[in-house]
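Task: complex structure prediction.
Instruction: return structure tokens for all chains below.
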Amino acid sequence: MIIVMATNATEKEADNVRDEIRQRGLTAHDNYGTQRVVIAVLGDVAPVRDVLMGKLSVMPGVESVTPISRPYKLTSRESHPEDTVIEVLGTKVGNGNLTIMAGPCSIEGRDMMLETAQAVAASGATILRGGAFKPRTSPYAFQGLGIEGLKYLAEASKLTGLPTITEVMEPSQVDVVAEHSDILQVGTRNMQNYSLLTAVGKAGKPVMLKRGYGATIEEWLMAAEYIVSSGNPHVILCERGIRTFETYTRNTLDLTAVPLLHHLTHLPVIVDPSHATGKRWLVKPMALAAVAAGADGIMVEVHPNPDQARSDGEQSLTFDQFADMASALNQIHEMVKTLNKDPFTMPGQVKVGGTSKH
Amino acid sequence: MIIVMATNATEKEADNVRDEIRQRGLTAHDNYGTQRVVIAVLGDVAPVRDVLMGKLSVMPGVESVTPISRPYKLTSRESHPEDTVIEVLGTKVGNGNLTIMAGPCSIEGRDMMLETAQAVAASGATILRGGAFKPRTSPYAFQGLGIEGLKYLAEASKLTGLPTITEVMEPSQVDVVAEHSDILQVGTRNMQNYSLLTAVGKAGKPVMLKRGYGATIEEWLMAAEYIVSSGNPHVILCERGIRTFETYTRNTLDLTAVPLLHHLTHLPVIVDPSHATGKRWLVKPMALAAVAAGADGIMVEVHPNPDQARSDGEQSLTFDQFADMASALNQIHEMVKTLNKDPFTMPGQVKVGGTSKH
Amino acid sequence: MIIVMATNATEKEADNVRDEIRQRGLTAHDNYGTQRVVIAVLGDVAPVRDVLMGKLSVMPGVESVTPISRPYKLTSRESHPEDTVIEVLGTKVGNGNLTIMAGPCSIEGRDMMLETAQAVAASGATILRGGAFKPRTSPYAFQGLGIEGLKYLAEASKLTGLPTITEVMEPSQVDVVAEHSDILQVGTRNMQNYSLLTAVGKAGKPVMLKRGYGATIEEWLMAAEYIVSSGNPHVILCERGIRTFETYTRNTLDLTAVPLLHHLTHLPVIVDPSHATGKRWLVKPMALAAVAAGADGIMVEVHPNPDQARSDGEQSLTFDQFADMASALNQIHEMVKTLNKDPFTMPGQVKVGGTSKH
Amino acid sequence: MIIVMATNATEKEADNVRDEIRQRGLTAHDNYGTQRVVIAVLGDVAPVRDVLMGKLSVMPGVESVTPISRPYKLTSRESHPEDTVIEVLGTKVGNGNLTIMAGPCSIEGRDMMLETAQAVAASGATILRGGAFKPRTSPYAFQGLGIEGLKYLAEASKLTGLPTITEVMEPSQVDVVAEHSDILQVGTRNMQNYSLLTAVGKAGKPVMLKRGYGATIEEWLMAAEYIVSSGNPHVILCERGIRTFETYTRNTLDLTAVPLLHHLTHLPVIVDPSHATGKRWLVKPMALAAVAAGADGIMVEVHPNPDQARSDGEQSLTFDQFADMASALNQIHEMVKTLNKDPFTMPGQVKVGGTSKH
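Output:
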């Protein structure tokens, strides 16, 4: 932590800052510049980080306080240089594998779930998705089939041999969702629902954490830290678009987050181009772009008849569109793997892709 | 709902759109322009609004689809022209009363809670606040005293005669929080936690719904609609800053939301300048501005010794600062009430302050 | 234009709206719904669009006014279905060609410009870039070599046979820049400098218009409309990141803008991953992603010795890094061309890539 | 400047950083923490600030680089503790005076300009505004009367005795605008038009610099620094709303910028509620809020008949509305002046309102 004193701060004010630091068992180290003094805090700052920053930032004579360590630890690449690879029913997420999660937005019935599952399994999906508990902006919209939907999803998994993922919306649903599904999804609106994060952290199943549409990458990693620190190291991150001033698309897909996250964290990164764009015809180009940027996979919505879908039909692919896209993604992925053996290294000498070097 | 066809759309494509509308029992009404046809959907669109919009928006020949009715109903001023006034323990929120909610960010112990309650009660607070369950960005930060904290809050209420407000973070906490507190607060990170919204909608106590830091005003009103449609009409809205590109302040306080909400909804509007600005010395000017803009009240954090606070100390006021500010707010409020008997009317002829006229 | 009346609007208020429309020589067409009347404006709205919208939006009884035609015309795909292809010194931008613009951020001297030009020409660049007039956030930073720099750029063009692009910052510079360079660049901070847009619109050379970092896609196309309506149809659009709340990257690269622009406009679209990310090691993955998303090319900064660059060194590539990236881009581009012969069509039946069909 | 090394950085990498610092004639001062080394740069960093930051940030082993001094100097409160007061024709802007700038968006003719000037002068305006050169998003919209408009504005000044302000859009217009008007306005779209900033910096007349709608406060102050460093210390800042994801209002008025700017800079701060909100009925409450937040004044649009205005009619006030608002603003201002003699002090011990103390 670095405390920058104002140019007109008195020596007494600087002393008060030093005292405050020492009272926490830490060391205050001075850096005298030409115009002001800058005080570094040395020692194990982590346990008192936020409180100390808050306190120092309003002390007389203090111009600014800047943390130097990142607030997330277990999820950081620094603490864990090797890529995390998550294995579910023989399918691996991360480490050079291309993950394709596909299925309907909402599970609308047994037939449509099984039909969709077979179609996407036949054309390249590696994980089945389907919504049973649906978070909807309007209280008057279709809220999903609930447990009945979970059963159809589990049946689809048996039929195809593919693992499944579905959303859980509150702590009390965690057990039943974990019973029927292989991966638990935490949605964008619940990214900072800490009760839920703690609950899925204890569920014993991998968790996919979608980025909050208003959340920074740092907050996203802090939310992942909640899950990992609750005992569950198997977290997948999913970029799905952030909120900006642009209104032609529903959200702005932040693809730069993909290589950035590979630098900051060891967790695998999936991209959801369906929700970010909100338009069927934008899904394929953005999925290709995501894989070209180094994503470990993508998640898309597929429906037997998108025009009749009970939710998100406008962004769902038909079976044919999905098959065409999945084939294209695999080709791009194969090429990108060879193209990214490259001379580009990152600060701190961690390479994209994850192996540390010196 | 208005469907704008592309200039090069065929008559067959327009027919398909009309058929889709009629199949839902609605009427398609043509408006032929010089360059294109525009189709209006007439009838009771509400029950199929989202699905129909989704479907039409991706049909061949369709350029755009625009809804014309707002998706929230119970919370809208159109459906309920009179201001909602919420009465708790004899204190009224809304309808020209100035509400001042004050107390510590976190309840850190019995003594500090009671001391703070007495101080703020003596200098102008009308409602006591205090956090028992704390949503924290970091899993390693102080998470609140829980039920023990709730008991101190209830004791403070008895001591001062003031009603209380405290945050509830998950459905399973609703009962115990409702038992000890007069108003339930839903925090910014849970604004779209629909399980929680439904639960507080059934709790039988007024609810204060903070705006999600990434949420539009429309989404905020839709979240309020969840609560009201669950049976609870006593909802207070609280603006607390939104996320923007500006980094000098923690969030950007959206004060224009205040007069805008008075136009769109009948619910009272409170402003929280502490969280929006994140700095103690910005709290007073922004609280004054909020009341000048027509807010029904403000919520601030007060601490006996802000420098020793376990959370948010940098934005908490001392007792003296609070007393000074509360006095100023009351003076501004008295003046603004007389200044706002004015010639400014809004579209649809609903006046600021809320009584409809013609 | 669609006028939605309030549910409590009187018939007199609706009449006033109709009168206002008719006074402009337009037709008011009623659509009576169950709750309100919606009035469509028919006729040639364009000449009075903004004024009429403004006036109607504040008339008593009016709930909202929505335009149905887009405000840009000459730049729209509707008005000009075929892709615009821009040819400079035998190099084509658009229409399936991959454009790679490369060179130093600032031209720092003759030797470095010529050396860089030869290096990038040898490894895949199709257009040379180099800054002579530099817009700098700080008045104390290096502002470029000016006309001297332009001469080195022109010399580099002769040496390599490649066309050149450089930024012009004010109307009075247009002539001299046009004399020495093949393409004029308008920078992100000048996207709505209308005097400059009009001046480059009359310069007789192609223009590359960078997106304003705070500008919507619609405003960007309106800025292009200024250039085209001044007589210059040869406009290239360049996405370079927009400003959002995320601070880990300098800006958020909006790659979804690429396929979206191919739908909305016939102009070619280039992506600048250097300025958007601000980090050298993020340039290659985002350039690959841009091409995978369908971009017509990319623009990057290359420097003989980035660590000694006088501006933007942290985002400049070395010669080796550029060569590696250019090779990768060409491979991805070849693959994407074949992968995008696909079943994804867009609303209004305009295909990605641009040929209209029915 | 603070360089944080990665936890796995080698001693050799840290040495390279120290060498780089020393080569610039600066001192590298180590702070050894438990996990990493943090290097402070001591000495006169300013002249090499940006280049050094860029270079260090991509050196191997470097985790992050943070500047500690602000990039603006002449505009900072630190360098100039006393409030700047700008006097034009006997009217003072800043230092406790309430400035009310009023007049038409566009000067549409002689009569309307003179009529409006007399009306606003009679009811409280202290400075006349009127647009002669209009920046318009659409090339097809009314662009202003140009020099003819300037003459009407000058005539209005003589008639009323009030000083005037009008926008200048390009360097070549500066002379003629300065000849006819007392204050030069730089619009939001030109905030980083550096050629224009330099030109108005040499014009010898006060300048009002509107905030770019996508610009941070720091960039805004850097733009002001361009003007001041060109020799013109008489700069007024004008907050007019920033671009956010909220779409119910045209922009989001950032009123917290007002007290924040009083802390960061000595320049006076004006608020424009007309452009931020885009709606006539939101102007008064936001003007009151601006003054309550401590603004030195406001700028609003007034028109004899807003419904017939050629631009921005929907946000223009009638004469009666302006008179009502101006009276209210003066009352609030008188009250706020007494209420702000308060115990709230800011970091670095600079009080709101501006006198430094110890």
